[in-house]
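Practice problem: predict the structure.
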Amino acid sequence: MQELKSHIQTYAIECGFDLVRITSAEEFVEDRNAALDRIAAGQMDGLSWYTESRVQRGTEPQKLLPGANSIICLGLSYLPSNYEDQPTPPWARLPDTPG
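Answer:
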């Protein structure tokens, strides 16, 4: 199993992803409880899409994909690694105009 995990991580990096993590597809009970507590406390007010049903669905992987054993998470940085070497875009060279 470790060999497969290593192969997946190597392949994802070769495909250009910056971050690769693998976890089990078990329920995220603690995370669900924390999220539901935050909703109840009003800490998610203004995020109309962040609902109790969405939290329930998102913390029960088996309901989304029955039989899944693992979850593969991939991350991609939007900031280029050579950020400092990037030329200033033309629009950023214009003087600020009073609004």
